[in-house]
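Note to self: the last two entries modelled the partners one at a time, which told us nothing about the interface. This time every component goes in together.
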Amino acid sequence: MLMHHLRVWRQFWLVAFMRQSAFRANFFLSLFEGLAQVVLVVTTFAIIYQYTPDIAGWTQAQVLIVVGLYRIVDGIINAQVAPNMREIDKYVQTGELDLLLLRPVESQFLVSTRLVALPELINIPIGLALLIYAGLQANLAWSISGILLALMLLLCGTLMIYAVWFMMMALALWFTWSPFESMVGNLFSIGRYPVDFFQRQVRALLTFIVPVAFATTFPAEALLGQLDPLIIVIAPIFALVLLLLSQRFWRWGLRSYGSASS
Amino acid sequence: MPAILVDGLCKTYRSFRKAPGLMGAVRSLIWREHVLREAVRDISFVIEEGEVVGFLGPNGAGKTTTLKMLSGILHPSKGRAEVLGFTPSQRAFAYLRQISMVMGQKSMLWHEIPTYDTLLVHKEIYRLDDGSFRRNLDELVELLAVEDLLRVPVRNLSLGERMKMELLAALLHQPRVLFLDEPTIGLDVVSQARLRGFLRELNRKFGTTIMLTSHYMDDIQALCQRVLLIDHGQLRFDGSLNELVMQSSPYKLLNVTFANTPPSSQALAMLDPRISQRPSDDPLRLNLAVPRELIAETTALLLRMGQVADVGIEDVPIEEVIGALFTGQEQIGVAA
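The predicted structure of the combined assembly is written out below.
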């Protein structure tokens, strides 16, 4: 069952490779955009940190670790999550969902994985380079446990963002469009800053409603050895709960789609 | 066990009516008026494995809705549907692997890449091993004669070629039941005929049960031993095309062309009053709608009325029979 789905997923990536060859320009566009974003944020912080040694307890090098992690997660989300989320309401509007529901594969899996924007993956090496540079500046210890922990948190955070975004898009099953189509994607862009930069209420929003903090701030803290141990327990549980919730929500929506749509 | 069993199937759509304009939009956020539309009302039929059944009806009659319920996309509001022993709406993978549906207006192919690459995705989705993938593909490619199109990006194919590829993708996993919704829509006459030939061959060779809707009577005549007629969500007829014509049109068309002068109207007034005259663009040609039981004597009578150059006796065209049925006309032979 799981293997079956993984094989289908692999095939989607192969298709993405084949489609991509037709649009090589996209690759350079993504490379340029990723680099430009990094340069912009890095210069902004370079200017700000001329006047202050730290913001909310974060030094310049530490903030750049968050920026680097953000680039990595942004690459994953823009490559695999966003292209699919943006199509879900269109599947409902055009009736293409009908054809997808005919396939002997979990429909949530199908609508969440079938499209891959490969050029966006270039953000991962860009983010990694910045992360390593900032880590060296911050005299990071690079402990194996810290790195594994950061990876785990990053994965959980990405899954949480996916689950929330997916539920927002699943609203289209009832209303044929989703009022929150780009909300999650836009809110995620705040993830390039440590959540401590914001007021308490906003911080809570970024941790539990749109769980951006789990994808960038917490992994950075794990690398810096400053992570609240409670987060290590909360992250996987919260990710699992959100995923199960999204599954329930989708099935509920499909029942409504099956009984109301025309 | 029949391939398809439908018992008292109903489907009621619930939609929302919105008053026009901005205020209407605002009001609809708070309170929405429900509108119920009965798309399918109490339909029952049984289809045996290997049958090819035509599903006829005007637009909005409930054909597509019924097919969508049978393929598991829509849930019935009431009644029971069973296909290959499964309840379609549960969408069990074991069920979905054995059926397929082609909708003439929707594409399941990726347009930027060749069909072959889409088929590789289907191979994984339907869990085909290399051997059966190759075998099924070779068979279908030969039947459809599309060997050289397999590696062409779909967007570079003509409409007819694309339809063949849609069928290829839909049949790769060798479904036992195939639902076709307007498969020949928009195709030219030659492509239509080819597609029909292919479907006939598919049914003969693999015993695939086929249920198809079409606006083209030629499709139905060429393929279907049996037709289901649906109108306003209700089943109006279930039987062979011949029975349909016999039952709904008790008339035959008698066309007589006279060599020089047609019979006078007084002479024609002697004919049975149940016989009616249909328009003719040739003054020498007489077109009559004649009750079946009067055909022989009427023909004999007319032959004595003048010098006859040609006689033709035909059934009322099937389009006309069905068109009349849907518009609720009783006397089909009379309508022209």
